[in-house]
Specification:
- There is one protein chain.
- With 128 residues, this protein is of the alpha+beta class.
- It has two domains: 3-66, OB fold (Dihydrolipoamide Acetyltransferase, E2P) (Beta Barrel), CATH 2.40.50.140; 79-126.
- The protein is built from two helices and five strands.
- The protein has helices at residues 79-101, 108-126, and strands spanning 3-10, 15-20, 25-29, 45-53, 56-66.
- The chain has a five-stranded antiparallel beta sheet with strand order 3-2-1-4-5, with no helix packed on it.
- A hairpin with a 4-residue loop joins strand 2 (15-20) and strand 3.
- The longest helix is centred in the last third of the chain and has 23 residues, at 79-101.
- The protein is elongated.
- The chain starts with a strand and ends with a helix.
């Protein structure tokens, strides 16, 4: 099976291109990605089969071999800063909890912001 690297991929457009070992561009449809993988980053190394499509070679049965390191995922907040963020989040959660005790759910915008904060903290804690 051929091997190549993702040149670019657009989640919004639902496709991108792979540069194979010969330097040829191969069309990559979102539907060809492995189950549960909505998108791939440029530089991701893939193994795939090729079928001739309407506009040239098209990747099929894609398998991810290696993903490029994420600079964002590998950055860590200092322990003191993370402790402060967690303390502030506890205050925020207390406020939400008190509202829920009185039958008030957070509005969708507040709920989304809270979810992002909790997800960010979880990511930082998982990197420890």
């Amino acid at each position: 099976m051929p091997i190549g690297r993702v040149k670019w991929f657009s989640l919004e457009k639902g496709f991108g291109f792979i540069s194979n070992e010969e330097g040829e561009d191969v069309y990559l449809a979102a539907s060809s990605l492995p189950n549960g993988v909505p998108s791939v980053k440029p530089g991701t190394k893939l193994e795939f089969s090729v079928a001739e499509g309407r506009k040239g070679p098209q990747a099929m049965s894609v398998h991810i071999i290696d993903e490029p390191a994420s600079v964002v995922a590998n950055t860590r907040i200092g322990a003191d800063d993370l402790a402060t963020i967690i303390e502030d989040t506890i205050k925020l959660l207390d406020k939400v909890g008190n509202g829920l005790r009185h039958g008030r759910y957070p509005n969708p915008g507040e709920a989304e912001r809270l979810a992002k904060v909790l997800n960010g903290i979880a990511g930082q804690v998982a990197n420890l």
